[in-house]
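hiii so my PI (J.) wants the whole complex modelled not just the main chain, which honestly fair. so below is everything: two entries, each one labled with what it is. i double checked the lines twice but i was tired so who knows lol
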Amino acid sequence: MEFVLVQILNGISYGLLLFMLSSGLTLVFSLMGVLNFAHASFYMLGAYFAYQVSAKIGFWPALVIAPVLVGTIGMLVERWGLRTVHRYGHVAELLFTFGLAYLIEEAVHLVWGRVAVEYRVPPDLDGPLFTIFTSQYPIYRGFMMLVAVAMLVSIWLALTRTRIGLVIQAALTHPQTVEALGHNVPRVFMLVFGGGAALAGLAGVIGGNAFVTEPGMAAAVGPIIFVIVVVGGMGSLAGAFIASILIGCMQTFAVALDWGFAGITISQAAPVLPYLLMVLLLIFRPRGLMGTREG
Amino acid sequence: MKYQPLNLGRWLLWGATAAVFVIAPLVFTDSFALTMLTQMGAFIIFALSYNMLLGQGGMLSFGHAVYSGLGAYITVHALNLVGKGSFYIPVPLLPIVGGFAGLVFGVLFGYVTTKRAGTTFALISLGIGEMVFACVLMFPGFFGGEAGVSTNRVVGRAFLGLTFGPAVQVYYLVAFWCFACMAAMFALTQTPLGRMANAVRDNPERAEFVGYNTQHVRFLQLVLSSFFAGISGGLSCINFEIVSAENVSAIRSGGVLLATFIGGVPFFFGPIVGAIVFIFFVVALSGFTKAWLLYLGLFFLLMVLYVPGGIASLVLMQIPVIRARRFGELVWPYCLAAGASFVALAGLVGMVEMVYHLSDVSGGTQMALAGVGFDARSGLPWLVFAALLAAGLVALRYASHFVGARWGAIQHDLLARGP
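here's the output for the full assembly
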């Protein structure tokens, strides 16, 4: 009982972190048709910027400054890179972001070196939040959940209750009409891309110290969020949410279990599970959990 | 039977390619060049098989190393069994084992991946790649864990007097397979399947209207492509005598994508050029500088942004101009652009190397580039390199306008004259 509760809480906090990443990816994909391969690299940049800023000024300013910096980089990338390759089609855009992911990883090697940096949980948030039976639940996990939920609510409000949100929603389906009504759709694209990057950056700020900040972190989390996008159904925010929580819980449970089967324990098989889920889903439900379009 | 004229140019081209394969080790005799040539041969097959997906079938795969890597694992076990005397296959025929292994895994995974096309295919191929990589680390009994499985290629009776101990024999083995696979893959582009793959790439909807199942065409194309990838894996297993998890990793899948794109996706011979350039980057440049991946990534990004047809398209663009005997007008602008790029590159390389040198804690701040020693912490070298970079970029901007103007004038005249 105690084990199940703790694991569920851990799974949800990890799943929410995954959703912070996959929501930006899904938004950018459904708006621009661009699958941003460098999305996980923005997550990594967020963690490294937060490390640098929190070493100089402190964690709380970093929580704001790092996502803003990452968002600015995202906007620059969209303005000076993606817009240029847009005329060559979606494959060229995908390849561009793929090359960018390479470049960001190498740049991180260049500036911060190849080993993990010491990005720690701030002392105010270090310690137990409450106790379930005998095990203590850390404050920081609760803080992660709080930030993620606050971010999700504010995105939802921004998308449905503000003017720019309505323009974004309209541009999702009818970009030509929105342009004819006098809105600058390329600028909307730039803002959305930058916003997606900033979300990834924020996830990096709060995920970087909960896990580990190292040059391999983008390559570790990148494939998982792509799996989430496929499992949830391409372009579906609700699907991405369900898939994030599902995979988050699945991973945390699998790592902790050591039931054996054919000489392999479940915890050993944990890295394979999300991909197995994806393969099974593709065989039985090719459009994903909540996907609407085929092909 | 339709009458077809003998395509003399094509025979000459293939003859010349075969001649290059034979002569290359006689020209580049030292052992370093020979290892590089051998690796290039195996990678050419890999890149060409990748282009069967990306260039001919329109499938952007992020997990192609799965097929070459698993082919290599099966080959290494077959070679070890031959060494134990369980059964006998001559070493030169072993790549076929890798090829069939690749084919089997192509059937297995291709059934899932080719259900979807476009971006989703790309994501699923990435997922399959990660899954196989995780599995390789999960079953150390078969895959040898991180260290991999090692072998010895000098086994059994000598085949026609060849033991494959000396590197030059391995080179000729790879060259033979490379040439055979090149010919086979070119022949495949001329078959109905090859043509249908192009149709499915360009307009899947119309291909379905004509009566073809696009999923089936993609599946067949992927299976054939994984067969050739498996052959390339088998060859690299014979060459290195070790197969490790790196062979199926995302790094290798990304590498073949980079190589193919840099060479030129729209052309059959593009990946050949790309493989040669890529192996040069990996083997030669990585010996000189730790920042080679950065340069490779930057090169790739510039190609995506400005030359989507790759190096091959740059070369082919010149042919009509040369035919019209007007290449002379372009020589001077090209030289100018090359000079400007060289200056900009020098500035960039200098700055990148200094940053790397400073981030490397073990060494001091003293360093040397092109025979000139200086202190990376002092301001002067930074100023010099930044000035070089800025001057190079400004000159490049000017030169590209110059090239564009001349190029536009020539194209205008060529169009006016008619075909």
